[in-house]
Amino acid sequence: MRTLVISDVHSNFEALRSVTENVLYDEIIFLGDAINYGPQPLEVLDWIHENVKYRILGNHDNSFLMGQDPNCSLQTRDMALYTMKNITEKLLGNEDKNKLRNFKESIDTKIDGERVLMAHGSPYDDFFGYTYGKEAEIISTDKDLEKFSYILLGHTHTSQ
């Protein structure tokens, strides 16, 4: 089975469409942050709802649902708060919030017989954990996580 893993689309439907139209896949895993920053939260959310099997809630998705600050970096905080108020909140209604409520904070499942853990941030902090450097080392040596063949995480905006 060919599985496409994506995350942190942040309301950029054109980028999402570009990625998904140019690869072959059987199923999609989405690791969070469907909304905020970009101009097309409705299109992104609808597409994910219709096409993605496994959906993880990111910190921006959760902050929208809870009416809270997404606690992002200082460099992007003003933009995040601005787009949340002036784009995301204006374009998404209750039905869209219900779609987001169906996303999971984390998923522990089997795919093709392999145990897989999915989260947005890290196995220790679903929304705000990062897997750079030391935390990546800790994850790789954590005995409690050895049961997983794969640990899939988003949030960093980098492939690792």
TrEMBL record:
Any Pfam family hit: Metallophos
One GO MF term? phosphatase activity
Coiled-coil ranges per UniProt:
none
**Hey, what's the signal peptide range on this chain?**
none
Q: Which CDD domains match?
A: MPP_superfamily
Start and end residues of each Calcineurin-like phosphoesterase domain: 1-157
Write down any Gene Ontology CC term: cytoplasm
This one is known as: Serine/threonine protein phosphatase
Q: Which taxonomic lineage does the organism of this UniProt entry have?
A: unclassified sequences, metagenomes, ecological metagenomes
